[in-house]
Design goal:
about 0% helix; 4-stranded antiparallel β-sheet; about 110 residues
């Protein structure tokens, strides 16, 4: 079974770049037709899809985040990463990575000075 684990700083200052990594085990990110997503859930709100990296390296992002979001991968480490620039307190959320039907446990990120 594929397992995913998010990692990264729990606290980021406003205007800085948030960087998170999702480590994948039990499966390969290059498996054909596999898709690797980032989502987040702000406090008191629903899940927000952020973006995806496909098995072939193609990426896509939510239009609302596209100007600030970059998703990349390191296939040698079987990891994919998220970088969200110019963060504000509104980016405070629990961040999850997933590849259907498997989810990471999530990691809390707080944006605060």
């Amino acid at each position: 079974q594929v397992q995913l684990q998010e990692s990264g700083p729990g606290l980021v200052k406003p205007s800085q770049t948030l960087s998170l990594t999702c480590s994948v085990s039990g499966g390969s990110m290059t498996t054909t037709y596999s898709f690797w997503h980032w989502v987040r859930q702000p406090p008191g709100k629903g899940l927000e899809w952020m973006g995806v990296i496909h098995y072939d390296g193609v990426t896509d992002a939510s239009p609302s985040l596209k100007s600030r979001l970059a998703i990349s991968r390191d296939t040698s480490k079987n990891q994919f990463s998220l970088q969200l620039s110019s963060v504000t307190p509104e980016d405070t959320a629990v961040y999850y990575c997933f590849s259907n039907p498997n989810w990471g446990q999530g990691t809390q990120v707080t944006v605060s000075s």
